[in-house]
Design a protein that fits this description.
Elements (H helix, E strand, L loop, with lengths): L1 E2 L3 E5 L5 H8 L2 H4 L10 H12 L8 E7 L2 E14 L4 E8 L9 H15 L5 E7 L3 H10 L2 E12 L2 E11 L8
Parallel strand pairs: 5-6
Antiparallel strand pairs: 1-2, 2-3, 3-4, 4-5, 6-8, 7-8
Helix pairs in contact: 1-3, 4-5
The protein binds coenzyme A.
Length: about 180
Amino acid sequence: MLYGKRIRLRADERSDLPQFVEWLNDPQVRRYLGMPAPISQDYEQQWFENMLKRPVEEHTLCIEIQAGDGWRCIGNCGIFDINSRVRSAEVGLFIGDKSCWNMGYGTEVMRLLLRHAFETLNLNRIFLRVDAGNLGGIHAYLKAGFVQEATLRQAIFRDGKYCDDLVMSVLRSEWTPEE
Ligand SMILES: CC(C)(COP(=O)(O)OP(=O)(O)OC[C@H]1O[C@@H](n2cnc3c(N)ncnc32)[C@H](O)[C@@H]1OP(=O)(O)O)[C@@H](O)C(=O)NCCC(=O)NCCS
């Protein structure tokens, strides 16, 4: 497990998939995820099997918060496409439980992924792509230490129009771990 102040990240299990499908079919959750169509349990199962074939450092992680004596899943995240020569990788997340939005969890997930990426995986550059309209996401990533480094103009088609896609990144040299 990777432990933060209020969250922990654990490996996804097959039993998480029905909940992920329900969340990813919610129009508000999927709005900025660039998913072109509703997904089925079979599709998600296939995604999961393919994900397991990736190196273990790239396996996706369930975001959990404390609930009573136990832990409750609220979303999913991961580190993808590790380039071992330049020590670079991409990160992504979604919080499917909308009652948990704007409570700082997204920021905390990113901080935890950065710590893992820099202090355990020995990576040097972490980046993400975010729809320019996803103001809550952008705000969370800025709080976690990301800086905007590029605008991919009209790289997204959403809600009937072209939208910009932002690239944000953190370098190991500019990252400060939280105490
Ligand atoms: C994007 C997402 C990860 C953010 O997670 P979160 O837990 O809500 O983020 P946080 O609470 O850490 O930070 C969000 C910040 O943005 C602010 N915010 C929210 N909506 C905003 C808006 N429309 N304009 C400006 N700021 C906004 C919040 O107030 C909060 O700032 P604060 O802590 O200073 O008050 C989450 O909403 C989510 O998973 N959405 C659906 C899927 C998705 O978009 N994934 C990301 C793809 S790149």
